[in-house]
Design a protein that fits this description.
Number of helices: 14
CATH class of the largest domain: Alpha Beta
Helix content: 40-55%
Strand content: 15-25%
CATH topology of the largest domain: TIM Barrel
CATH superfamily of the largest domain: Metal-dependent hydrolases
Distance between the termini: 47 Å
Length: about 450
């Protein structure tokens, strides 16, 4: 399909993030085939989209997500929690043990529709369902395929539910990764999932490390999200979470360290040397009252910091805004963090996705993935290369997504879904499954 997008203001993302006026995008074969004035791109075209009054952005990337948490919305049965450990014990670990494979798939379907509406076309998910492990990633992958979006999947291995569950989690990661390698799909990729160092023994970390290296894939793990993670590891192993994970070869190039809220200078040096990505999740950290990561300090050490949502939302521009305000509070400086936070979304997230998929994703450039969104926005002040990031944070972030395209396929246009998904029917089925899940909770 040859799809032409013309008349809009193109914002490229990447470094540098450029603003292109008077240019059109030709999408063909799942990639951006050409960027040039519309009159210089020869037809015929299968479809032409008029982007006048809109900014043309790359599809957004969410670098840390939990699809399964979708079915918790409105659940009021968990006991009040006074710390993060109690949040896990009272809510999340109770919930994930009760998930069925049908729940797993439905939770993904619901949030993927929301992602289409918010212009988030690539999501890096971290899954847990200890009562329904085997086949869970295939069920999520089916939902991803039907949505038209991209997702990198993994299963969260943890010692907290016993040896049989550990083995099932290790094998679920391995079998899905092997399937992805055997039959490459532009919508799907795999990482090796681990919960966090405080729920993983050295024996389990060693097993996972060997498997990950044999499979030649990186790891996706929560790191120093709460102070309790650090305290537990130091008490039981005499090391910080970062020290243990680096020692086992878990944190390395191609791996994601989610959160990194409680990292001292030594941890930061180890993270910088490891080549792993840190993914900042500010709304979740604020919600769980675990603290605010020192994004400015991490970036100063050369650590690549991306942006995720930890399932608080799929609206990446919303997460960017909250991350910036939180960093002001963390540093007690209202003038800091702007380039670090915008860089996380505009530069680092595309780098993460591009590394995971093996081709350019998350930027508008010839040869990059044809993942494009159109956002309604009439700039009230000059919009150019030097002002675009300010517009992104303070203006475009508050505008509505009109069109979402992934891999050259139009998933939504004029705010109407074009992918074959019945939102009302999905929501009705989801309510039924959620009600049953809540009864089991």
């Amino acid at each position: 399909m040859r799809l032409l997008i013309q008349g809009g203001t193109i914002v490229t993302f990447g470094s540098p993030c450029r603003v292109l006026e008077g240019q059109a995008l030709l999408l063909e074969g799942g990639r951006i085939a050409r960027i040039a004035p519309a009159g210089e791109i020869p037809g015929p075209f299968d479809r032409v989209l008029d982007a006048r009054g809109k900014v043309v952005l790359p599809g957004l990337v969410n670098a840390h997500m939990h699809f399964y948490s979708t079915l918790v919305r409105g659940l009021g049965k968990a006991a009040p929690s006074g710390c993060f450990q109690e949040v896990l014990e009272n809510l999340w670990w109770r919930l994930d043990r009760k998930l069925s494979l049908d729940d797993v798939e439905m939770s993904a379907r619901i949030i993927l529709v929301d992602a289409i509406r918010k212009g988030t076309t690539t999501l890096v998910d971290h899954h847990a369902s200890p009562g329904a492990i085997r086949g869970s990633l295939d069920r999520i992958a089916r939902a991803v395929k039907d949505s038209g979006l991209r997702s990198c999947l993994c299963y969260e291995v943890s010692d907290r539910d016993g040896a049989a569950v550990i083995d099932d989690g290790l094998e679920e990661n391995a079998s899905f990764a092997r399937a992805c390698a055997a039959s490459p799909d532009p919508q799907l990729r795999a990482l090796f999932g681990l919960h966090a160092a405080f729920t993983l023994s050295d024996e389990t970390l060693a097993k996972a490390s060997r498997l990950g290296q044999d499979l030649d894939i990186g790891f996706h793990v929560h790191v120093a999200e709460a102070a309790s993670d650090v305290a537990s590891n130091r008490r039981r192993y005499g090391r910080s979470p970062v020290e243990r994970l680096v020692a086992h070869g878990i944190l390395r190039e191609g791996s994601i360290a989610a959160h990194a809220v409680h990292c001292d200078d030594g941890d930061k040096d180890l993270l910088a040397a490891s080549g792993a990505w840190v993914v900042h999740n500010p709304q979740s950290n604020l919600n769980n009252a675990v603290g605010i990561a020192d994004v400015v300090g991490l970036v100063r050490r050369g650590i690549p910091v991306g942006l995720g949502t930890d399932a608080m939302t799929v609206a990446m521009l919303e997460e960017l805004r909250v991350g910036l305000w939180a960093q002001h509070l963390r540093q007690e400086n209202p003038s800091c963090g702007f380039m670090e936070l915008t860089g996380a979304l505009v530069v680092r997230n595309p780098e993460i996705a591009s590394r995971l998929w093996g081709f350019p994703i998350g930027t508008l450039a010839e040869g990059a993935a044809a993942d494009v969104i159109l956002v309604d926005y009439h700039a009230p002040t000059p919009l150019n290369d030097s002002t675009v990031l300010g517009h992104l944070v303070f203006g475009i972030s508050q505008a509505g997504v009109d069109t979402t395209i992934c891999g050259g396929r139009v998933l939504m246009h004029g705010r109407q879904l074009e992918v074959d998904l019945d939102e009302a029917a999905l929501a009705a089925d989801s309510r039924r499954l959620a009600a049953a899940l809540w009864e089991r909770f």
